[in-house]
Amino acid sequence: DAKTTQPNSMESNEEEPVHLPCNHSTISGTDYIHWYRQLPSQGPEYVIHGLTSNVNNRMASLAIAEDRKSSTLILHRATLRDAAVYYCILRGDNAGNMLTFGGGTRLMVKP
Amino acid sequence: ETGVTQSPTHLIKTRGQQVTLRCSSQSGHNTVSWYQQALGQGPQFIFQYYREEENGRGNFPPRFSGLQFPNYSSELNVNALELDDSALYLCASSQVPQGGTDTQYFGPGTRLTVL
């Protein structure tokens, strides 16, 4: 699987939007972009995924660059419960069921 | 809908011992994957089971082995424990392996400490 690069940590104020970036310059045409997050003392939790078009769900939005070499996870209004490590993961169709986690971005939310 | 459950929550073993960790998949899921997460790092893929057969393996030695049962519950066995095996062990279930688009549902993990 192609590699992703994320900032180690980010800070946000409560009730403000948060933009979490991910670079994946070696992404292939069939790689899906997945985001998972891991809250303290819990297992990872699926957030969202996309291929080429921007995606929205009840948790977040995913904005994918036109060249697909980068993407941004958008939390529209951060809450204290959103404090977690966010992982950006690429998954190809032949990746089986394996998730390759990097270091992720630790998001801290200030009240 | 019952989520993924794991047992035990915590476990302490000594070097050289053997350990068995258990996982119950989410209802309707027939694929289970196991991950090891060392402190401060992202989870690392150990292996996956689909229809009771190993269906992919990460860079882990043979002393890490697993089983999947007909009811899709699963076990992770680790023999000859080493200090570096101390970690959070995560189980994740999903429907049939779908590569790029599938979603994995994780349990809360088992914290293993090897002394």
What does this protein look like?
The complex is a heterodimer of chains A (111) and B (115). With 111 residues, chain A is an all-beta fold. Chain A contains no helices and nine strands. In chain A, the strands form two sheets. Chain A has a five-stranded mixed sheet, with no helix packed on it. Chain A is globular, with a radius of gyration of 13 Å. Chain B is an all-beta fold and 115 residues long. Chain B contains no helices and eleven strands.
Element string of chain B (H = helix, E = strand): EEEEEEEEEEE
Order of helices and strands of chain A: EEEEEEEEE
Shape of chain A: globular
Structural class of chain A: mainly beta
* Count of β-strands of chain A: 9
* N→C terminal distance of chain A: 37 Å
Work out the oligomeric state of the chains in this entry: heterodimer
Total helices of chain B: the number is 0
Q: Which structural category do the helix and sheet elements of chain B fall into?
A: mainly beta
Q: Count the DSSP helices of chain A.
A: 0
The interface involving the most residues is between:
A-B, 27 and 30 residues
Rounded average pLDDT of chain B = 92
Secondary structure: helix percent of chain B:
under 10%
Which overall shape of chain B is indicated by the principal axes computed on the Cα atoms? globular
Gyration radius over CA of chain B: 13 Å
Portion in strands of chain B = over 45%
Give the proportion of residues in helices of chain A: under 10%
For the biggest sheet of chain A, the summary is: 5 strands, mixed
Strand content of chain A: over 45%
Distance between the termini of chain B: 37 Å
Main sheet characteristics of chain B? 7 strands, mixed
